[in-house]
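pinned: reference chain
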Amino acid sequence: MSDGLSFDYIGKLIRSYRSAECTSLQALADRSGVSRSMIAQIESGQTVPTIAVLAKLAEAMNYELATLVQPPERALNISTSRAAKDNIISKVDSPFTCHILKKQSGLFTTEIYQFYFNEAGKTSFSANVRGSIKHLWLQQGKLDIYVAGNKISAQQNCLTTFNANIPHRLESRSEPLAKGLFFVVY
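pinned: its structure tokens
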């Protein structure tokens, strides 16, 4: 390939698919109608497959053709987030600190937050949009969740799910103070 283009990522994707699915070359060949030797050559970067071959492989792998041919820097869409001063969304004087780790955007209909109590206290949330659900994972500490007058005592290392379109509050009144994550699904 004198133009400097490389399609090795296609072979790597096929190999990683086979590994994750515990699928042999022969099994993928049988499902796709592409010869075992052709798949091996694609995986090792020895040949660039035609669109017809890629379409057969994509169908056999239950992928869209675009997923198979898209370069990894666009297909992987990897990002990392961590708690930092610039993503704190709680009030300065609150006993509760909340970092937004991932905002709702485009097709991503979930927001992800990390929270912790700096001191014993409570924090209140207004209702989220209709149909939204909150999933709260308590990593450590003691936490009571109040939803519509009902008290839920969250358990450490457990996921508690509730209707987020009702105003609710979190309380951590004693040591160890609560720390965890919550996800709002819209």
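why pinned: Residues 8-21 form the longest helix (14 residues). The beta strands are 96-102, 110-117, 121-125, 133-140, 143-147, 150-154, 159-163, 168-172, 179-185.
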